[in-house]
Specification:
Blueprint lengths: L11 H17 L4 H8 L3 H15 L4 E4 L4 E4 L12 H17 L22 H13 L1 E9 L2 E16 L4 E7 L4 E6 L3 E10 L8 H4 L1 E8 L5 H10 L7 E6 L3 H7 L11 H4 L1 E3 L2 H5 L4
Antiparallel strand pairs: 1-2, 3-4, 3-7, 4-5, 5-6, 8-9, 8-10
């Protein structure tokens, strides 16, 4: 196996298999060759070689074989090498495998005791998305047909897209809008047509002040909670000294606030309903609307 001077394998597919080894071992407590065979479509012999190579070249001593489990478990000295050791990595792996299993009904990826709630996804035309991605990549302006809740008819918009953004609720594209002479967020599902490429974009990501400005959102437990309740909330959000600071682009602050289920304009009557509040509320409000 080839190793770079930083110690990372060059082959992408091997990186993915090593990551899965760590994620499953750490968060399920039992890793078998079936996890690799079912997830990557490889033979049992290859899966066994991958586990041995991981233990030899990447993380010696991280796993130990348990005859009762008939699989590998993390050792007492386990230290993540290919992952950050966060639960989100396991949960994202579950979401991805459930998504694959939904599309390919005969595919068994080895995660049996999980379920994922699928919310309705907004429809995005692949032709539309390809045009936006190409314009962003090449630094072009593009004339698109767009509809909005405030306008009953499709309207021509000349925009210079620079970044696709995924929020918990939808995908949108961040772009300079010539009609509004400002950077705006355009919901991908509301583009209706591709009219024409309008040449090189003068207003690109570097000129988008709100995109390039970072804002710290400081979360703290609601002060009306009891000390015991505050301690629970602090643990939930991995707070340090009862504070959790999240760094967000100014343009994305409204979506971050929405994702955290916060209403910056009012305080819930019951602190148990809100649980967390923004300590630097005045600062965040400047970027939230």
């Amino acid at each position: 196996m080839e190793i770079t001077n930083t110690g990372w394998p060059i082959r992408w597919e091997l990186l993915m298999r090593y990551r899965l080894i760590e994620i499953v071992a750490l968060w399920e407590g039992r890793l078998t060759t079936n996890h690799l065979c079912n997830s990557f479509g490889i033979a049992r012999q290859q899966a066994s070689k991958d586990i041995n190579a991981y233990l030899r070249d990447v993380a010696p001593g991280n796993l130990e074989y348990d005859t009762k489990l008939k699989g590998y478990k993390p050792s007492a000295t386990f230290t993540p090498k290919m992952t950050s050791g966060l639960a989100d990595e396991y949960l994202h792996a579950l979401a991805s495998t459930k998504d694959f299993a939904h599309t390919f009904s005969q595919l068994d990826l080895g995660f049996a005791h999980t379920e994922m709630l699928n919310t309705p996804m907004r429809q995005v035309n692949p032709d539309i998305l390809r045009a936006l991605v190409q314009a962003a990549r090449e630094g072009k302006k593009i004339d698109m047909g767009y509809v909005s809740l405030t306008s009953p008819d499709e309207e021509s918009r000349i925009i210079a897209p620079h970044t696709l953004v995924c929020t918990p609720l939808r995908w949108h594209v961040r772009a300079y809008c010539e009609k509004n002479r400002d950077y705006r967020d355009f919901v991908l599902s509301r583009f209706r047509s591709i009219n024409d490429i309008e040449g090189d974009a003068q207003m690109r990501r570097e000129a988008d002040d709100r995109w390039n400005t970072m804002v710290n959102i400081t979360l703290v437990p609601d002060s009306r909670l009891s000390d015991y309740q505050k301690a629970i909330i602090a643990e939930d959000y991995n707070m340090v000294d009862y504070k959790r600071v999240i760094s967000v682009r100014s343009a994305l602050v409204p979506y971050a606030v929405q994702a955290l289920n916060l209403d910056l304009t009012k305080i819930e009557a019951k602190p148990e309903a809100q649980q967390i509040v923004v300590a630097n509320l005045d600062e965040v409000k400047q970027h939230a609307f």
